[in-house]
Amino acid sequence: MVTTTPVPTKPRARNTTVALKWAMAVSGILFVLFVLLHMYGNLKAFAGQEAFDSYAAGLRTLLYPYLPHEGFLWIQRVVLLVALVVHVVAAITLWRRARGARSRRYVVHKRLVQSYSSRTVRWGGLIILAFVIFHLLQFTTLTIEVGGSFDSPYQRLVVAFSAEHWYVYLAYLIAIVALAMHVRHGVWSALQTLGASNRRRQRNINVLAYVVAGALLVGFMAPPTAILLGFVK
Ligand code: HEM
Fold first, then answer.
1. How many CB atoms are located within 10 Å of the residue 90 CB?
2. Residue with CA at minimum distance from ligand 1 atom 2
3. Taking burial as the number of CB atoms within 10 A of a residue's CB, which of 4, 6, 45, 98 is the most buried?
């Protein structure tokens, strides 16, 4: 008779691993909702300067007078910052655990056991983090001025992505491709964690992950591409 000896696992470690995966999934979904809304808002660039500038001004008066000027933006900033800390800390903790478990069980070279997507997700995450810091310095604190200083958010956008500053476009393209790849893996992974996935739904979840990632890639890059090619001036 063949008997299998169950691998002893520590229930506490298993429970915290599940909690960390949930934390990653929930914070990740918050980010996805934010980037989808942000991408949609950016498409207002196609409606012209007045529409885009009043959209940017509207962000500052959202829920006013229930909230003070920029109150909503500040709540959003705090929520996103907390989500970022949770996401990064959980990712590092899970990665360390997986690496520890692997080095105990296998004597195989790391690259063989590490999946392609887990490596690209980690590099992608770092690229996105670096991009967000640059992006906030450019459009929120206005510390980095591309092509001059402008009061109008629309002008800032159009000048930054004009053909003269093609390197800014290239930097954004790299970051948005990294974002799309990260979100493709993240949506799939988060829905598995949250239990929305079983074998029957696996295919639909995969399709959803590609649709969200594709929408972000096309939607985010549409205004800068139109500006670069001179269709939006
Ligand atoms: C082509 C892509 C993108 C363009 C053209 C773009 C454009 C902008 C602009 C114009 C603003 C300033 C809005 C305002 O306050 O008036 C802004 C703010 C912001 N963007 Fe983006 N964005 C892009 C992609 C992203 C991505 C991928 C992320 C996140 C991963 C992101 C995160 C943010 C954040 C956090 C803010 C600051 C909101 C605040 O002031 O609290 N953006 N973006």
1. 21
2. 220
3. 45
How far apart CA 121 and CA 127 sit, in angstroms, is 10
Contact present, 63 and 54 (Cβ < 8 Å): no
Residue 144, pLDDT score: 97
Second-level CATH architecture of 15-228: Up-down Bundle (1.20)
Q: For residue 175, which atom of ligand 1 is closest to its CA?
A: 27
- Is the CB–ligand 1 distance for residue 161 below 6 Å? no
- Listing DSSP states for 143-178 in one string gives -S-SSS--S-HHHHHHHHTSGGGHHHHHHHHHHHHH
Q: Is 102 in the pocket of ligand 1 (CB under 6 A)?
A: no
Phi, psi of 195 (to 5 degrees): 80, 10
Q: Is the CB of 35 under 6 A from ligand 1?
A: yes
In tens, the pLDDT along 59-88 reads 999 999 999 999 999 999 999 999 999 999
Q: Which residue carries 């594709």 as its tokens?
A: 214
Whether 228 and 169 have beta carbons less than 8 Å apart is answered as: yes
Q: Which residues of 194-229 are buried (b: 16+ CB within 10 A; e: fewer)?
A: eeebeeeeeeebeebbeebbebbbebbbbbbbbbbe
Q: Could you tell me if the CB of 189 is within 6 A of ligand 1?
A: no
- Residue position matching structure tokens 């992974």: 189
